[in-house]
């Protein structure tokens, strides 16, 4: 986002102007949550709707976590943490396959990424229709995907991808490849590290001597458009000195005008401070008053898990229905892939991304740059049950609610998105003969078209319903899709 665009959006946010001070025409943010929270999320993010998450690191070598396990995490990227729990399935797997005396550090030389092709990755992301990408520059294991002085110093060993393992700057390589494709490239960054000696000995020194300079190095070197912070939950944002760090990010960093942040900056901040609100493996949030994003993998794990089978992966229909539902409620979907240690995107993950792109290419107008309608029909009483709103791990299977709703509830006929001049009815089934839409305000001159193909369709009002006739020739001529879009120009 250009600086003048951000300033224009800030002009509509009096709190931002009050909390900051102007210096040579630019807003100056103060190291307080009042000031930081007043900064609006750049429009590129709220318009994008769909992004790609990437979990890739040393944990991609063992690539193991129990599937559908009670009491143990199903996240393969938590391998090291699970390894240190006596009698865990991860401990047993490790001892059986690598030996009881095999240290986690010895996985690093095995993380070689010899088949890594960042241009191919960027091509897949572009074909998926995603508009932004967030790569794990560093997960809780502390291993960085770019060369970093602090990682080596505090761990007392080579602990970055340039000095050991791939022996290349795999983070910067992807940043540059993605930007050549017009993608907004960003990073995931864990504030804490499970077993970093300095973190375990002196958290205050860790923040000052390790995290602060390392974060600034990552931002200066990689120039991320988005920062998904994590690992914040052990201490408060004041102890992390997060407002101070974010004031630097918004005032001094090379990405100060365009960067987007999340809400994970201390155990007191989620859904309260920072940028967009986050949920993971849930139905997301039910309201769009504040930018929000649901993140999840295609299976049960973010990092690649060799224990997962095809049955554990969501189908292309299930993933697309999630995207449509989340966007219809005003959110973004950050869909994760877990590459293999040798640098490949697993084929089933690549296929799912391309399948989503097959819908978005002709129908992206109904997704990008849209907003939720004021009263989304699909979540209203009498339609289908309201989903439970949580930050982490709740049941969510929108496809069952769309295709086989519980007894006594009507089937969802459309997801709705809107722009200033139109409403988009996204139909989760091929339209045949007639489509009936409820609670759509339309003037007498409303123009209804099939978004893909552009055919104009006849419509009429009957009470609160808009009835749209679908000629047999139109229905038969539609390509095979998981969903279809009707554009209602002039509707509200």
Could you explain how this protein is built, in words?
By secondary structure, the chain is an alpha/beta fold. It has 2 domains: 41-231 and 276-366, Glycosidases (TIM Barrel), CATH 3.20.20.80; 420-492, Golgi alpha-mannosidase II (Immunoglobulin-like, Sandwich). It contains 17 helices and 18 strands. An 8-stranded parallel sheet has the order 7-6-5-4-3-10-9-8. A 5-stranded antiparallel sheet has the order 11-12-18-14-15. Strand 16 (459-462) and strand 17 form a beta hairpin. Helix 7 (118-128) crosses helix 9.
What's the layout of helices and strands?
Layout (H helix, E strand, L loop, with lengths): L2 H8 L3 H6 L1 E3 L2 E3 L4 H6 L4 H6 L1 E5 L24 H5 L5 H9 L20 H11 L3 E7 L10 H7 L14 H11 L3 E7 L6 H5 L1 H20 L3 E5 L6 H4 L1 H10 L8 E2 L15 E4 L11 E6 L18 H13 L3 E6 L9 H17 L34 H6 L11 E5 L2 E6 L5 E6 L8 E4 L5 E2 L1 E4 L2 E6 L1 H6 L6 E6 L3
Parallel strand pairs: 3-4, 3-10, 4-5, 5-6, 6-7, 8-9, 9-10
Antiparallel strand pairs: 1-2, 11-12, 12-18, 13-17, 14-15, 14-18, 16-17
């Amino acid at each position: 986002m250009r600086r003048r665009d951000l300033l224009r959006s800030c002009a509509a946010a009096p709190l931002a102007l009050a909390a900051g001070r102007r210096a040579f025409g630019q807003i100056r943010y103060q190291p307080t949550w009042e000031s930081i929270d007043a900064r609006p999320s750049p429009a590129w993010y709220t318009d994008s709707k769909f992004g790609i998450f990437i979990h890739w690191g040393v944990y991609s070598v063992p690539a193991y976590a129990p599937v559908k396990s009670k009491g143990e995490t199903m996240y393969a990227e938590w391998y090291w943490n699970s390894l240190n729990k006596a009698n865990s399935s991860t401990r047993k797997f490790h001892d059986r396959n690598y030996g009881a005396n095999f240290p986690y550090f010895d996985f690093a030389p095995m993380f070689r990424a010899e088949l890594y092709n960042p241009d191919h990755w960027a091509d897949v992301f572009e074909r998926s229709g995603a508009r932004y990408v967030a790569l794990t520059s560093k997960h809780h294991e502390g291993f960085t995907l770019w060369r970093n002085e602090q990682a080596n110093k505090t761990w007392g060993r080579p602990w970055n991808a340039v000095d050991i393992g791939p022996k290349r700057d795999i983070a910067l390589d992807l940043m540059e490849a993605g930007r050549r494709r017009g993608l907004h490239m960003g990073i995931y960054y864990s504030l804490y590290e499970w077993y970093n000696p300095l973190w375990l000995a002196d958290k205050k020194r860790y923040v000052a001597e390790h995290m602060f300079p390392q974060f600034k190095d990552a931002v200066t070197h990689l120039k991320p458009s988005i920062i998904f912070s994590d690992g914040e939950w052990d201490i408060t944002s004041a102890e992390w000195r997060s407002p101070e760090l974010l004031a630097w990010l918004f005032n001094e960093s090379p990405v100060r005008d365009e960067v987007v942040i999340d809400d994970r900056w201390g155990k007191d901040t989620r859904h309260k401070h920072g940028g967009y609100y986050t949920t993971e493996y849930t139905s997301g949030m039910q309201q769009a008053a504040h930018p929000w994003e649901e993140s999840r993998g295609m299976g049960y794990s973010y990092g690649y898990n060799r224990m997962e089978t095809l049955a554990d992966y969501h189908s292309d229909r299930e993933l697309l229905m999630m995207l449509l539902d989340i966007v219809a409620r005003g959110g973004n979907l950050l869909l994760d892939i877990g590459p293999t240690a040798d640098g490949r995107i697993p084929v089933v993950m690549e296929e799912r991304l391309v399948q989503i792109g097959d819908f978005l290419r002709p129908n992206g107008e109904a997704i990008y740059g849209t907003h939720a309608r004021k009263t989304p029909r699909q979540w209203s009483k009498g339609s289908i049950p309201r989903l439970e709103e949580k930050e982490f791990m709740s049941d969510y299977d929108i496809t069952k609610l769309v295709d086989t709703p519980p007894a006594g509830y009507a089937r969802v006929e459309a997801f709705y998105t809107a722009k200033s001049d139109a409403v988009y009815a996204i139909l989760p089934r091929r339209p045949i003969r007639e489509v009936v839409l409820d609670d759509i305000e339309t003037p007498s001159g409303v123009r209804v078209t099939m978004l893909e193909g552009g055919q104009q369709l006849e419509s009429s009002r009957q009470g609160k319903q808009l009835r749209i006739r679908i000629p047999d020739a139109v229905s038969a001529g539609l390509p095979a899709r998981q969903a279809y879009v009707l554009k209602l120009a002039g509707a509200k």
